[in-house]
């Protein structure tokens, strides 16, 4: 019987192709939107995780504020990975990290190098060109080694430059391109916060594609002491820590934590994060964002469902006579109910499958033009089928009940 | 297919003091006021009467599309008063074959699909349906038209398909409501000849009509007037 109903549904869907397609359109768009959003979200996640892991698994990042553990567990010092207690304000507000902390970390066992860095907000100007887009960071010479920066021209500034408050700068590939186009930047003077800086190096364009955070090519590095002098402050935004061996990462993480706690009067107002921790923090934020966008996209699924209900109600009215005939020749109300319900479900599921196909095509387009590779998993297929099935049932039930309730005598009189 | 004489005594339809009252916003209407009717297996009976006589109401009740308000109605010895809607639908499927004035085929289905439909609802197997459809199409002279669409066929052919559909579940009776009403005289005669020959093969036929020319084909005529049956001819 169900097989027969599916056959019947396909016959009636085929007999009104245009209408069927328009009815499905809502579901097609809905499933498409949801899948593309999830696909892009997952794609960005996997891209970022490969970027972060390319930084090296022997890196620790010390940052101000509590990240990854809930604030109330700070006293016992236990961090819960992936816990929801991310205090955004404390991680971007005035830093609690000091140069004393940097020294403390340098003396910790297994630490091979440290690189504190801060952020200078300013435009960067060369002659009459000015740009506000670069990320200006004050750091030490070690930074280049830890991040394994490769230079196109010149060299990274030295520890001596930092000690002397030298006004020198190293440009990212994009910043260089923006200010100097294809011309030579080395030895030229750029202006930051009204001070002249000599360009001593240009970094090679990174190959990790569109940037998220640290791997951006629109960046200017200056010595941290010079930065402090220029900004008249003594801020440390993050401290990058290189550990001698990935095996020691966890023990070193704890050692640094304990050592810094002493500096901070027992308060754990900082976080020592592995690349994995950073990733999970990022993923938490991205998941939230994806969920939000998907929720919005889901509204189109709802609208699609209402569209199906609308057309099915019209169909039931139009086919009143058919219902009368079927009942006269022996269909029970249950037979009629399942016929129309299955028709709605099939409309919806075909729409879902078309949406799935369309989102796959869109994935290829996004990959080509936006540099993000959306990830489509079995999850997406199950989701598309499941959701469209669900929508079909939910919005198909009311019209099917209406059909089943028709009295055969009246229904046979219908034109 | 020929029924034996001893089965001839069996009542397919038995009605006693059957009445039907419509009571709605439009007012109260006594459509049937006490019908007594027996239709025996193998009968070919015509129910005739002018419009408004209660003829259609009687037909709907015989066809299990409507329920009587009072009185007894046994269909093949089953008292329909005690049956649920679902049981009525099943009984309709198994015992009654409808032939309508306006044919009432499903336009989106081909001849085969239309004819097999009552068997689909009866959950008969595919092979059984195939066999039976071929058999009844042969019987109505359309064996070669199984794949045709009804919109490419003449009225007479369409009505033959409808008769074939009515036969598929081996019903106790065929209920034909003005089967020639939408056909020209010659085609109408062919359809009546077909019904007549089916009756001669043992099929019980209840014909509802206001056309005396059509009524003549029946072995027996009952007249409906003002909600009552009468043996006397009523002008239509």
Multimerization status: heterodimer
SS strand fraction of chain A: 15-25%
User: Can you tell me the CATH architecture of chain B?
Assistant: 3-Layer(aba) Sandwich
Strand sequence of the main sheet of chain B, in spatial order? Answer: 6-7-8-3-9-10
Beta strand count of chain B: 10
Largest interface: A-B, 22 and 26 residues
Mean pLDDT metric of chain A? 84
| Number of beta-strand segments of chain A | 12
Looking at CATH, the homologous superfamily of chain B is P-loop containing nucleotide triphosphate hydrolases
Number of helices of chain A: 14
What features would you describe in this structure?
The complex is a heterodimer of chains A (415) and B (236). Chain A has 415 residues and is an alpha+beta fold. Chain A folds into 2 domains: 2-50 and 298-413, no CATH class; 97-268, no CATH class. Chain A is 55% helix and 15% strand. Chain A is built from 14 helices and 12 strands. Chain A has helices at residues 2-15, 17-54, 88-92, 99-106, 142-146, 159-163, 173-180, 224-231, 249-263, 275-318, 320-328, 333-370, 378-404, 408-413, and strands at residues 59-64, 111-120, 124-126, 129-131, 135-139, 151-154, 168-171, 189-192, 195-203, 219-223, 238-243, 270-274. In chain A, strands 1, 2, 3, 4, 5, 6, 7, 8, 9, 10, 11 and 12 form a 12-stranded mixed β-sheet that branches. In chain A, a hairpin with a 2-residue loop joins β3 and β4 (129-131). The longest helix of chain A is centred in the C-terminal third of the chain and has 44 residues, at 275-318. Chain A starts with a helix and ends with a helix. Chain B is an alpha/beta fold and 236 residues long. Chain B has a single domain (42-67, 82-230), classed as 3-Layer(aba) Sandwich (Rossmann fold). In chain B, 33% of the residues lie in helices and 27% in strands. Chain B contains 7 helices and 10 strands. In chain B, the strands form 2 sheets. In chain B, strands 6-7-8-3-9-10 form a 6-stranded mixed β-sheet, sandwiched between helices. A 4-stranded antiparallel β-sheet of chain B has the order 2-1-4-5, with helices on one face. In chain B, α4 (126-139) crosses α5. The longest helix of chain B is centred in the C-terminal third of the chain and has 16 residues, at 185-200. Chain B starts with 10 loop residues before the first strand and ends in a 6-residue tail after the last strand. The model of chain B is unreliable at 1-8 (pLDDT under 50). The chains are: A alpha+beta (415), B alpha/beta (236). At the A-B interface, α1, α11, α12 and α14 of A face α2 and α3 of B.
